Amino acid sequence: MGAESAFEQAVRKIIEKSTPITITEGTVKSVDKAARTCDVERDDLPELFDVRLTATLEPGDDVATIFPTPGSRCLVALVEGQPTDAFMLSATDIEEVAVRIGESEMVANKDKVSAKCGSSEVTLEKAGLTIKKDDSLKSILESIIDQMAAITVTGSFGTSSIPVNSPQMVTIKANIAKLFKG
After folding, report:
1. Pairing of strands 160-161, 153-154
2. Residues 57 and 100 both lie in one domain
3. Gap between the Cα atoms of 101 and 94, Å rounded
4. Is residue 29 domain-shared with residue 58, that is, in the same domain?
5. Which of 15-19, 39-43, 121-125 has the highest mean pLDDT?
6. Is residue 116 part of a domain?
7. Is the overall model pTM greater than 0.90, yes or no?
8. Is residue 117 included in any domain, yes or no?
9. Is residue 66 packed enough to be buried (19+ CB in 10 Å), middle (13-18) or exposed (0-12)?
10. For residues 82 and 48, what is the distance between their CA atoms, to the nearest angstrom?
């Protein structure tokens, strides 16, 4: 047996052992975030139901999931050519991305980006930034400004008055309210 025929025989064996995967294109009809699935309409082909948004059958809790926007075009893999065993490969438009690893979570969508780790949480929205761990950074900073503004200064004549920079403290507090949401 020559080298060429040995190579051909090796290639045939590899092809025979491979699992066939069919790639099909369609449009996302609906998304079920709780089940991490979607339904996909295809041109001149049957609709695909319960298409997994993660490749594995039971992904567990520690997983990254990309939720496509209904109406977006997508590519779906059919394992062994079976329309009942399909998972999303890609989509033209993404509605949300969610990642969970242990006690840590991250969610990003058009309205906000949030991250949690245990009891600590950071949320970034158009309205502002929220940082929490039992209490929010905004409320702590506002309390500090309130306490500083309440300080009275005793003059040489024994009378007390508010600090001269009290108006600036009001401005600082207003700026904190603009920056931080919660």
Report:
1. antiparallel
2. yes
3. 21
4. yes
5. 39-43
6. no
7. no
8. no
9. middle
10. 10
Instruction: Supply the range of the domain harboring residue 162.
Output: 129-179
Q: pLDDT band at residue 173, thresholds of 50, 70 and 90?
A: confident
Alpha-carbon dihedral angle through residues 166, 171, 175, 181, given to the nearest 10 degrees: 70
Model pLDDT, residue 59:
65
| pLDDT tens per residue across span 28-50 | 999 999 999 999 999 999 999 99
Residue (of 108, 114, 103, 98) closest to 63 by Cα position: 98
Please tell me whether residues 86 and 155 are part of one structural domain: no
User: Which residues, listed in sequence order, are joined to residue 154 by a DSSP beta bridge?
Assistant: 160
- The span from the CA of 103 to the CA of 160, in Å, is 51
Residue 115 counted as domain residue: no
Place of tokens 């065993």: 85
State how far Cα 31 lies from the chain centre.
16
Answer whether 96's CB lies under 8 Å from 64's CB.
no
pLDDT at 3 over 90: no
